[in-house]
Amino acid sequence: ICLVCRNAARGRAAIKAITEVASRPPLLFIADLSSQRDIHHVAATLHAQLARIDVLINNAGAAFATRQLTTDGIERTFATNHLAPFLLTNLVLDLVREAPQGRIVTLTAGIPVRRASFLENLQGEQHYSQFSAYRTSKVSNILFTYELARRLHDTRITANCVHPGPVRTEFTQKAGGTLLRLSKILRFIMRSPEAGAQGPIYLAADPAVADVTGRYFVSRKRRKSPGITYDRDIARKLWEISEQLTSLKP
Q1: Distance CA 29, CA 159 (A)
Q2: What is the pLDDT of residues 170-187, one digit of tens each?
Q3: Which of 134, 146, 202, 216 is catalytic?
Q4: Would the pTM count as exceeding 0.85?
Q5: Are 56 and 97 in contact (CB under 8 A)?
Q6: Among 134, 137, 58, 91, which residue's Cα sits nearest to residue 246?
Q7: What whole-number distance in Å separates Cα of residue 133 and Cα of residue 120?
């Protein structure tokens, strides 16, 4: 088990907790995944220390009440939630190919979005709100997963995405703004972190989904995602835009 964490202290605390139940201690890598420089650095470190990656879980996420730019000049929510998994996945894809049957799992949320203006406002250039930025990044996760699965159709790698449902973590407290207010309304139906983890664990390890790819799950159940996510032309264009924003060669 390898953890990529932004906060070293919290990462070490997670390592300590996992070590109590794991057969061997996990490895900890420190990186701010809103920074493309950090993503390249952690990818290089993973290549130096690992022979293969059996399962890659893209779980990092954030939402910001005001529009902020990263050191790369990209809107921070879009950079962290979409471009980070897009870039990291592509940089370590060769390690996933070395696995007997690699799996890529990306956490998302199925929030409908208008098809007409989606690609024109990916970074909140025209109008920005915390919820719209978060929604755009989560729809991008699904489009990315479906396009990735199509590009890997002739390999042993599967790519799926999962919505864990509303989970009782510090995410909304740290995000503030609209998401914090929404979480206060939904707090009575929010799931525990242990319950929220069941969907990603299922896609990462269960033999029942060993050959399932290009699908959207809510917890452990396969579901239909928002209509825009099935538009292959939008998925292809988003992929090309993501390549440009990350300087990733096609």
Answers
A1: 23
A2: 765 566 666 666 666 667
A3: 134
A4: yes
A5: no
A6: 91
A7: 13
